[in-house]
Amino acid sequence: MVDEKDEVIGYAMFSRFHIEGRYEDELLMLAPVAVKTKLQRQHISKELLEYGFEKARKMGYKAILVEGNPRNYNSRGFQSSYKFGIEAGPNIQLPHPDCLMIKELEKGALDRINGLVDYSFYNTLK
């Protein structure tokens, strides 16, 4: 997002993601989301996320996964992922299981998306 001077004031990155080699064309990972410090608490991140959700829907994605503080994401429709059979793998250290969350973009999508979240495939990018 840019201001009237075309300066970046915030951004949200959505990346294709898979769980156990599945769902790559249906699942996105949200990280990071950032807003300039002096502009925080002005609903900029809300606008960024809602815009991203709509774009993701139009592109055919079914769900978005995020790791973070539930207080920052529950109001945007994210729920604890373990409630849907999506859990952090053994190499992911979360402060609490509720810190891994998922948002359904298409009703019923989470009825069939499940498994262990693992970031180890990023090691191959070194």
List the helices and strands and how they pair.
Blueprint: E1 10-16, E2 27-35, H1 44-58, E3 63-67, H2 70-73, E4 79-80, E5 86-88, E6 100-104, E7 115-117
Parallel strand pairs: 2-3, 5-7
Antiparallel strand pairs: 1-2, 3-6, 4-6
Q: What are the salient characteristics of this protein?
A:
126 residues; alpha/beta; Aminopeptidase; 5-stranded mixed beta sheet; two-stranded parallel sheet; 2 helices
Explained architecture:
By secondary structure, this protein is of the alpha/beta class. The chain has a single domain (10-125), classed as Gcn5-related N-acetyltransferase (GNAT) (Aminopeptidase). A 5-stranded mixed sheet has the order 1-2-3-6-4, with helices on one face. It has a two-stranded parallel ribbon with strand order 5-7. The protein contains 2 helices and 7 strands. It has helices spanning 44-58, 70-73, and strands at 10-16, 27-35, 63-67, 79-80, 86-88, 100-104, 115-117.
Mean pLDDT: 94
Characterize the quaternary organization of these chains.
single chain
Measured on Cα atoms, how large is the radius of gyration?
15 Å
Order of helices and strands: EEHEHEEEE
Measured distance between first and last alpha carbons: 30 Å
Number of strands: 7
Domains (count): 1
C-alpha geometry: globular
Biggest sheet: strand arrangement: 1-2-3-6-4
Low-confidence stretches: none
Q: What is the annotated CATH architecture? A: 3-Layer(aba) Sandwich
* CATH homology superfamily: Gcn5-related N-acetyltransferase (GNAT)
- CATH class assignment: Alpha Beta
What's the CATH topology name? Aminopeptidase
Largest sheet properties: 5 strands, mixed
